[in-house]
Amino acid sequence: MKPFLNETYESFRMAWEQIRSQRIRSFLTALGVIIGIVSITMMGTAISGIDKGFEKSLSMLGYDVVYIQKSSWTSMDDWWIYRNRPDLKTSYAETINGIVEGDGDSLIEIAVPQMSTFNASASYRDRSIEQVYAIGSTADYMRTASGDIEEGRFFMRHEELSATMVCVIGSEIAEGLFPGGGAVGKTIRLKNRNCRVIGVFRKQGKFLGLFSFDNQLLMPLDSFRRVFGSNRYVTMRIKLQEGAAIEEARDEIRGVMRRVRQLRPAEKDDFAINEQQAFKQQLDPIKNGIAVAGLFITGMSLFVGAIGIMNITFVSVKERTREIGLRKALGARRRTILMQFLIESVTICLLGGAVGLLTALGMTAAISAFLPEFPLPFSPALVVLSLGVSVLTGVISGFAPALSASRLDPADSLRYE
Amino acid sequence: MGSTIIRMEDISRHYEMGEELVRALDGIDLCFEKGEYSAIMGPSGSGKSTLMNIMGCLDTPSRGRYELNGQNVEEMDDDELARVRNREIGFVFQTFNLLPRMNCLQNVELPLIYAGIDTRHRKERAIAALERVGLADRMHHKPTELSGGQIQRVAIARALINTPSIILADEPTGNLDTATSNDIMQIFEELWKAGNTIILITHEEDIAQCTRRTIRLRDGRVESDIKRST
């Protein structure tokens, strides 16, 4: 073991000498690996960034909240199927809760109704904000929502019942209307009606980069009706019991809803049960497709780098034929020569990999600084992986030339000019 | 004299050059005793280099028996040959063959690396070998900073380092001027007197005259084998 370690150490030292003595060549050779590792690392980071952003978005919907709506989030059925369905009524919530109350085994904790509109506008003095996602719901809303109140409070039962004109606003609205802060207690205008701000939600970020939960505005259901009318999109938010299996819960909800809608057995469901899991199932293959294609394409650049290393190692073997002959004459075995050239190519790749990794690290840091919206997690696993890939590249690209070096005939190589 | 170090019986080495069969060596019988100082001479094409390659275990014969220090060389595989070259043979080449990027000390240490000797002992022994050729003060110099004679002395130190059974020198003075050649031959003389077995390959008569035995080759055969006592 010891002589082997000795030899390996010497091989590393010689490889280092060789790389140092041919700086420009070594750098150009390593450049292929550097570019390869940068692109792979950046792609890996981007993919895990997408993944993380995706997870974060889905968690906004809540893992244990199911949404009953007129249309499905994921199904590709024709639009008119959804269009012809009867609208949901906010009163269903009470009916559902009544049914559930009598059933000790129910997986449903509570049903909360919500009415919403996407393009409300809110204003305060000379400032106004468009595309507000206005929601009318009950005081139980917060039991089904993932956001927190940062400032102030949510509305109470008595405010809900008396249709008081109060609202809780998202951080984007708060920043837009009250740049200096102090939103709570102010009265804003919603469609010519006054509404007092009683709370501000904590910032949540964008959902899949599409729309923001931070421009939502929550108000009591009847207050919402007074402002936006009763003909608005209704969603039933169903909070499940802790640890409830989603499939069983779906079955129960379906049964309950069919009872509420009084559907006959032959009739199809005229409502949709939506949950984040279905989203995930829909989007996972797309995400994986992007990952595979992205890594394949960036992998090509590393492949080109590997070919460069193979080429230069072949050149190096040719140039150093006499040296190989001499080393063999002095007692170097095949294995020793093989190891020496392999270690040279691995060292170049490892250096290239390290430089590439640092470059990628710098680039992600820069991107994160300029685009804080885009999460770029730089994981230790990625570091280990890309260094591992570098070593592997070195071994694969160096093996053929190193083998040819180890097989050279010592007498012929010594005579080689 | 002492025991036999090299015993060659009916050694032949044939090459195929296209259709033609080249008989570089054609039935060589030779023995070298421990402590002998010999020269192998012959015109170019006589088989000197092939014989040296076979004696140095850089090549294996097509036919015949070659016994080096009691070991049958013709049956060995590549790695065993490498081990024999490392332990039993000290090469000195006409073109010196030092690695240009390493200093003298590192060049002399090289065979010890392949012998698996650790760093400390390597350094001690390399310094001792360089002292023997009078170059201990240049050990941190690179070959490019030395004269031809000095480089060849470093190469001799490298050949000595593993205390080989024989020192094989292929035209060791071929690239040197007369004065430097004399210095080098002086070193060989001293090494011989210290008990080393030395075989020189040369085409210079006066170099051969420094040795105690001259073997002349012609067309792959031994033409004459003359021992002298001085």
Automatic annotation (TrEMBL), chain A:
It is found in: Cell membrane. Keywords: Cell membrane, Membrane, Transmembrane, Transmembrane helix. The chain crosses the membrane at residues 27-50, 290-317, 338-371, 383-405. One of its GO terms (cellular component) is plasma membrane. GO terms for molecular function: transmembrane transporter activity. InterPro entries: ABC3_permease_C, MacB_PCD, Macrolide_Exporter_MacB. It holds the Pfam family MacB_PCD. Residues 296-410 form the ABC3 transporter permease C-terminal domain. It is a multi-pass membrane protein. Belongs to the ABC-4 integral membrane protein family. This is ABC transporter permease.
Automatic annotation (TrEMBL), chain B:
It comes from the Bacteria. InterPro entries: AAA+_ATPase (IPR003593), ABC_transporter-like_ATP-bd (IPR003439), ABC_transporter-like_CS (IPR017871), ABC_transpr_LolD-like (IPR015854), MacB-like_ATP-bd (IPR017911), P-loop_NTPase (IPR027417). Residues 6-230 form the ABC transporter domain. GO terms for cellular component: membrane protein complex; plasma membrane. Pfam families: ABC_tran. GO terms for molecular function: ATP binding; ATP hydrolysis activity; transmembrane transporter activity. Coiled coil: none annotated. Keywords: ATP-binding, Nucleotide-binding, Transport. Belongs to the ABC transporter superfamily. Macrolide exporter (TC 3.A.1.122) family. This is ABC transporter ATP-binding protein.
